[in-house]
Amino acid sequence: MIIPFAPGGSTSIVGRVIADKMSETLGEKIIVDNRVGAGGTVGTRAVAKSAPDGYTIGLGYTGTLAIGPTLYGKGGYDPRKDFAPIGMIGNSPNSLVVHPSFPAKTVAELIAYAKANPGKLNFGSAGAGTASHITGEYFGHAAGITLVHVPYKGTGPALVDLIGGHIPMAFAPIPATHANIAGGQLRGLAVTSLTRTSLLPDVPTIAESGLQGFDASLYYGLIAPAGTPRPIIDRLNKELRAALASDEVRKRLQQDGTEPTPGTPEDYAVFIDQDETKWSRIVKTSGAKEE
Of 156, 138, 155, which Cα lies nearest the Cα of 147? Predict the structure, then answer.
């Protein structure tokens, strides 16, 4: 299993949880290969170029299948043509968080504040072109407001400055924010998925806060090279869904803020198409460039 990011991140955590469980049910050891570079496109391209025999699969991810093809113009793969989707694993939303001193206590109040102070509301992200940056641009576009992006070299530094009061708001992964929200160092205004998350059950979604249909979750799934025989895809999908049905896997994923969302290969293929269409438009609108 090729995971296109470094160990320790959300993609690696999700991929290893699934690899461990599927190794048990398949009776074959799944070896995880973290192949990093160019925003995940190096590892994802390696999956596309592998032999379609079922022995090389990859972790699909919104960043590599939906954002990367537009952000990295020379990624070297087509998310619709170069892969055989196996199935979706789950989704992990971001959170919209503000400093406790910020006057807005709801998304509606934040939008009103931004409209009253055009071009003066900053938001932090993990860096230019990251999912948290593009989510902020998506939010501003959907709300009809202008936000000023402040890129950091990772989620950690952005949250340090947010907690210190140097910036008023940020978009950041829920596993990185929920402890600070619970401790009062941050105020959680919303989560970016269509449904609430079990890690922050009292925090509403942006969609239910007035921006209907807003969904900026990060989705994970399994992919194989295009041309992988259908019986192999079906077997892998069966074992993936069995893994997602186990209490052990569901608990481990939910601890990392990932909500399991099993489905068929066809479901995942349709989703990849729709997700790339949506995020491609958002990337172009944001003006984000490859770093």
Answer: 138
CB contact at 8 A, 114 and 277 = no
Instruction: With beta carbons less than 8 A apart as the criterion, state whether 134 and 67 touch.
Output: yes
39 neighbors 64 (Cβ within 8 angstroms): yes
190-217 pLDDT, tens digit each: 999 998 988 899 999 999 999 999 989 8
Give how many domains the chain has, as a whole number: 2
Asked which of 174, 209, 244 is the last residue of a domain, the reply is: 209
- The single residue listed with the structure tokens 């296109």 is 4
Tokens of 186: 């941050």
Identify whether residues 150 and 172 lie together within a single domain.
Answer: yes
- Look at residue 166 and tell me whether its pLDDT is greater than 90: yes
pTM (predicted TM-score): 0.82
Domain boundary among the residues 191, 209, 227 is at 209
Q: Which domain holds residue 141?
A: 94-209
Spatial contact of 246 and 113, defined as CB atoms under 8 Å apart: no
